[in-house]
Amino acid sequence: MKRKLDDLQEDKPPIALPDADAKSSQDTAFTDFGLDSRILTAIAGQGFHKPTMPQALAIPQILDGRSLVLRAKTGSGKTLCYLLPLIESVLRATKEAAQKSTFALVLVPTRELADQVLRTVETFTAFCQKDVRAIKLSEQLPDEVVRSMLASSPHIVVATPSRACASLKVSPSWTSDLKLLVIDESDLVLSYGYEEDLATLSASIPKGVQAILTSATLTSDVDRLKDRFCKNPAVLDLNEPDAEGEGITQYVVECGEDDKFLLIYVLLKLKLIQGKCLIFVTDDVDRSYRLKLYLEQFGIRSAVLNSQLPIASRVHTVQQFNQGLFDILISSDEMEVLGDEAGSLGEDASTPDAGPDGEDASEKHGTKDTETTQPKKKRKSSRRDKDYGVSRGIDFRNVAIVVNFDCPSTARSYAHRIGRTARAGQTGTSLTMVVPSDKFRKHIPTSIPSAANDEKTLSKIKKQQAASGKELKPWHFDWKTLEGFRYRVNDALRAVTKVAVREARMREIRQELLKSDKLQRRFEENPAELHALRHDGQLRSARTQPHLKDVPDYLLPEGKKKLTASDVGFVPMRKADGKNRKGRGFKGKGKRSGGRKIDPLRSFKARPKAK
Ligand SMILES: Nc1ncnc2c1ncn2[C@@H]1O[C@H](COP(=O)(O)OP(=O)(O)OP(=O)(O)O)[C@@H](O)[C@H]1O
User: Do 205 and 89 lie in a common domain?
Assistant: First the structure.
């Protein structure tokens, strides 16, 4: 393990971290931290048996009052690294004296994360709700509402930097007595355009406040934040060079643009993918609906996540996915354009764009002339809700496989996308579809501009993964066998017209309007509007073709009437040389059968259609 703990705070004695730390951290129990029994009860309620390594090492430091820069790999439980000691500190402080001011501010780069963090606070304060109050400032609210929320001196405020900053105009002194400041995903906040907000906030926060910066990477942005918010913090760098991507078996398949649709159909319909599947498509909301409608043609249900959905429904979708109400989630990864692209190119990505709360930061910062100063990609994403970023920080639970249906545009984005699986020590699988340049634009209806760079990006991804000892294994499909399914794919693709996609988007918005609490009153007063909205909702999303919902016998493996998940594991995979690779070295989350894990991505041999 590469571990560094340096530059200790001047007023604290150096921390002795013996070499055996990594080892001893494995023996640490939650009870060793001296946490309040109500917190321990909540931890037990989550079924967490012992702290993750970052938790074992970071929690005592934070409880000891040290400022800390914590770097640990995605999915390693960084949120609880700071939340558990934070809650404990609030409880200790309230025991001593009634708290009349806000104790801690947790800054996160996106609204989704703010929501997630607040929910985590609620989970771990379930048995001490009266003693720990937390609020969230991540949406634009009327000044009076913000004022009254802050007037009650909540112990913990979870906020995006721009909302926290805006709240200072309403309640100028609410941060003046802060004891603890957390900047979560600190390698990301600056690239979201929060620089000025953070500068304003730092001026309002007491000097010497205990500051915790967490991140998955230690970038120059983290250094800048460290310089701004904490002098000489302890630095806990737990990211072994090869820890990122650990537990993930990575596959890549090179194929044509229409082949992607063929593959995803086969993988999902024949249940070659088992468990929860997170599919990333490119930076394009329409693309996510197109894929959803396409899959619907085959009776495959999925949900969509994109920046155009209201925040409440995005959060709701992630919650439902986590609860297992559906297994396939299609996400358009729009935020990679801003945060990850810039970061990976080593650019200064802190140019103000639109604020991540949907606020136009160019107006806010008085820099209207974005046309000439903003890179193209940034301008494009500024029309969208900038707080959207699913490949960073969002805790998708128990994702068995991440499918990059469209290759991400950077190696960094790739790492964050695949990091949505194999979280908290679990294992997972990723499959990335890449369009080689000779196959680009060979099937115009399914072509997307970003695929032009797939090959280049793939070589960067491979380099990045190789640097940490990881590899993307090529996935060999028996394309001849798949050809039998091609006509069904074309049928389905034809049904998913632009109009159908537009209607699907409209229908989704209508459903959100119908669900909107804010509009309920209006509907009560204007029932005709409600009726009209409901009536609109009757529109069909796409021409459906019932015959596509079943897989005909002649396309099934020889002798099979029906494919079940367990059958799939034993369907022999045909390699180019005809060798059977059954049961080879899969480490993912497949079902066990006969004591051996079954690779959910195992291919199959099907008979071509009888002539
Ligand atoms: N001690 C633990 N035991 C088991 N699961 C845990 C433990 N701590 C956290 N988890 C779970 O691990 C998952 C990942 O945690 P978290 O989101 O905090 O990771 P992270 O390091 O912040 O990831 P990212 O960098 O992607 O934001 C969550 O579902 C969380 O509930």
Answer: yes
**Residue 582 placed within a domain:** no
Residues 218 and 336 in one domain: no
Domain count of the fold of the chain? 3
Residue 574 lies in a domain: no
User: What would the pLDDT profile of 422-473 be if each residue is shown by its tens digit?
Assistant: 877 788 999 999 999 999 998 888 889 999 999 999 999 999 999 888 999 9
Ligand 1 atom nearest residue 48's Cα: 3
- The CATH number of residue 278's host domain is 3.40.50.300
Q: 516 with 399, same domain?
A: no
Cα 77 to ligand 1 centre (Å): 3
Which residue CA neighbors atom 23 of ligand 1 most closely? 75
Q: 535 and 441 in one domain?
A: no
pLDDT for residue 379 is more than 60: no
Q: Please compute the mean of the pLDDT values over residues 579-587 and round it to a whole number.
A: 31
Average pLDDT over the chain reads 75
Looking at 209, 237, 265, the residue that finishes a domain is 237
Q: What are the distances in angstroms from CA 240 to CA 244, 452, 461?
A: 8, 33, 18
* Ligand 1 pocket by Cβ (under 6 Å): 48, 51-52, 55, 72, 74-80, 216, 393, 395, 397, 419, 423-424
Residue 580 has pLDDT above 70, yes or no: no
Specify whether 275 is located in the same domain as 225.
Answer: no
Separation of first and last alpha carbons in the chain: 60
Torsions phi, psi for 396 (to 5 deg): -80, 130
Residues 226 and 270 in one domain: no
Q: How far is the CA of 17 from the centre of ligand 1 (A)?
A: 24
The pTM of this model reads 0.65
CA of 240 to the centre of ligand 1 (A): 17
Q: Give the nearest ligand 1 atom to 419 CA.
A: 26
Q: Does 465 lie in the same domain as 332?
A: yes
Report the distance separating Cα 431 and Cα 602, nearest Å.
12
Are 107 and 67 found together in one domain? yes
Residue 376: Cβ-neighbour burial (10 angstroms; 0-12, 13-18, 19+) = exposed
Q: Tell me the pLDDT tens digit for each residue of 298-315.
A: 999 999 988 777 777 777
Query: Among all chains, which residue has been given the structure tokens 């021409």?
Result: 543
Q: How far is the CA of 423 from the centre of ligand 1 (A)?
A: 7
Please give the distance, rounded to the nearest whole angstrom, from the Cα atom of residue 76 to the centre of ligand 1: 5
Per-residue burial over 136-150, b if 16 or more Cβ lie within 10 Å, else e, is bbbbebeeeebeebb
Range of the domain at 56: 2-237
Measured by CA distance, the residue closest to atom 15 of ligand 1 is 77
Instruction: For residue range 355-369, list pLDDT tens digits in order.
Output: 344 333 333 333 333
CB 267 within 8 A of CB 46: no
Amino acid identity, residue 586?
Answer: F
Q: Give the range with max mean pLDDT: 122-136, 403-417, 502-516.
A: 122-136
Q: In which band, very low, low, confident or very high, does the pLDDT at 556 lie, cut at 50, 70 and 90?
A: low
**CA of 79, closest atom in ligand 1:** 18
- The answer on pLDDT for 595 being more than 60 is no
